[in-house]
Amino acid sequence: MSPSRIRVPDLREKKSRGEKIAMLTAYDATMARLLDQAGVDALLVGDSVGMVVLGYENTLAVTLDDMLHHTRAVARGASRALVVADMPFLSYQVSAEEAVRNAGRLLQEGGASAVKLEGGRPVVEAVRRMVDVGIPVMGHLGLRPQSVHQLGGYIKQATRPGDADALLADAIALQEAGAFGVVLESIPEDVAKTVTSALEIPTIGIGAGPHCDGQVLVSHDMLGLFDRFVPSFVKQYAKLSETIQSATRAYVDDVREGRYPESLSKISGVPNR
Ligand code: KIV
After folding, report:
1. According to CATH, what is the number of the domain 8-238?
2. Domain coordinates of the chain in residue numbers?
3. Which atom of ligand 1 is least distant from the CA of 216?
4. I need a surface site. Which of 3, 5, 25, 266 has the fewest CB within 10 A?
């Protein structure tokens, strides 16, 4: 029997039982299936797809259509993990009405079970409206990549006491608006610890230390697949970029030297695609 699907309320129950939540990003069906089978609790279809898959400098160019395309693929590949889709830049900031409609599309057409958006008090009205119509929402505080120009780069946030207090107030406002969890990105670990103990909903950290209720990483960073840069907090569990390059070099050599393919008469038993 396949293990039962993780649902939104399960994450809060995990927090209350003191069980850590493991989340990774995924952008296509094959990777979603592999990560799901390896036991990840939640798959985030991050707008980081813009950087690690689509080759953009940052996440700002990612559109709702891009997110729908990748969310559909991940939803097809995942059978157990909770699928959370990122709301891209400008899909929720203009009005609460637009936010509800766009989030609804990620569930209705994309097959996600929840959405994630960046920001605190400025977006709580949109969060409340989405939650009112049954759309589960995850917040995202600290380093908010969609605000990279305003922040002046991918810089650690909440390092001054006033900023840490503001972040805590944002987190509480998101919880009160009905958010079921909040990502804390690139903040000092003592700030993440304070926020985690102040909230009933789980915190999911990325570059925020060990005290969060769960962790999320960009899978291409964690697997060593994205080789343009590696954020300092990332642990690389594999070096897939090297594996891919050496396999490709071997293939190129084999083709050039006539070692591949063998005559078809020698190959048996493998079904064609
Ligand atoms: O887009 C993304 O991958 C994210 C994670 C960094 C949390 O938002």
Report:
1. 3.20.20.60
2. 8-238, 240-273
3. 7
4. 266
What is the pLDDT at residue 271?
A: 67
Q: What is the pTM of this model?
A: 0.96
Using CB distances shorter than 6 Å, the residues near ligand 1 are 25, 44, 46-48, 86, 140, 183, 185, 206, 216, 218
Q: Which residues of the chain are under the pLDDT cut of 70?
A: 1-2, 268-273
Q: Compute the C-alpha angle 157/213/186, nearest 5°.
A: 15
Residue with tokens 């009160």: 176
CA 204 to centroid of ligand 1, rounded, Å: 11
**pLDDT tens-digit readout, 147-191:** 999 999 999 999 998 999 999 999 999 999 999 999 999 999 999
CA of 3 to the centre of ligand 1 (A): 26
Which amino acid, one-letter code, is at 84? V
Query: What is the spatial distance between Cα 220 and Cα 49, in angstroms, rounded to a whole number?
Result: 10
- Decide if 118 is catalytic: no
3-state SS string over 230-256? CCCCCCCCCCHHHHHHHHHHHHHHHHH
